[in-house]
Specification:
The structure is a single chain. Helices cover 20% and strands 32% of the residues. With 223 residues, the chain is α/β, with parallel strands linked by helices. It has 2 domains: 88 residues, Translation factors (Elongation Factor Tu (Ef-tu), domain 3, Beta Barrel); 116 residues, Rossmann fold. The protein has a 6-stranded antiparallel sheet, covered by helices on one side. A hairpin with a 4-residue loop joins strand 1 and strand 2. Helix 4 packs parallel to helix 5.
């Protein structure tokens, strides 16, 4: 049973913008007194359903943005994908620990799919100098690539599906993010921030435990 007391902020949908046939940006009003850190998420309650979504927008933004994948059969993602401007729903306070720490070692961000959202928020909040390994099924799924390339020390796009050999994306890799790490990462001290599917998080954590046992790992998984 959903505890409605936890959803103490009310927001209004401003716009919904589709990035491809599955993923959209939902822009909402920012409620008075709402506070967050880049990388955190909120629980959204709408139509009797609740689910957690990471904030795409940085803390100082005047609106709240979410990067949402519409799941086939997903009640909440489907409802949010259909809702019109002016729709009202409730959210919880911001929570989560995938927030940026001042580094004393090289920083790697690893994201798959809409798991890129916390890193987009961090970049918008001023974080730079990291290495980002960005995974998607297709090149069109490498969302916010331009902004991320501008902020990163190095940006490595990994596409698990097929792509045109002439696709103009520097350093494009036809492999999963875990395969790239397994092939290229040298043992050392690193900070790793992981966001994506639970399978990716599990596989990457096991790989890092073997290759770099002293790495610090911060992660946020979605189903």
């Amino acid at each position: 049973m959903i505890d409605t007391v936890l959803f103490n902020h009310t927001v209004v949908v401003i716009s919904r913008d589709w990035l491809n046939e599955e993923v959209f940006i939902l822009t909402c009003s920012c409620p008075p007194g709402f506070q967050s850190q880049a990388g955190q998420y909120v629980s959204i309650m709408f139509g009797g359903e609740a689910r957690e979504y990471t904030l795409l927008s940085p803390p100082e933004a005047s609106v709240l943005r979410f990067l949402i994948k519409r799941i086939e059969g997903g009640k909440l993602s489907g409802a949010l994908g259909d809702c019109a401007p002016g729709t009202v729903f409730n959210i919880s306070k911001a929570k989560g620990y995938l927030t940026y720490r001042s580094p004393d070692r090289p920083v790697f961000f690893v994201a798959t799919g809409v798991g890129i959202a916390p890193f987009v928020a961090m970049v918008a909040a001023g974080v730079t100098g990291f290495t980002l390994i960005h995974g998607a099924r297709t090149v069109s799924g490498l969302f916010y690539r331009r902004e991320l390339i501008a902020a990163a020390k190095r940006y490595i796009p990994c596409v698990s599906g097929t792509f045109d050999a002439e696709t103009a994306v520097p350093d494009l890799q036809q492999r999963h993010v875990t395969q790239y790490i397994e092939r290229h990462l040298q043992p050392g001290l690193y900070d790793f921030y992981l966001c994506g599917s639970r399978t990716m998080i599990t596989d990457m954590t096991h790989l890092l435990d073997q290759r770099c046992p002293d790495a610090r790992i911060y992660s946020e998984a979605y189903s």
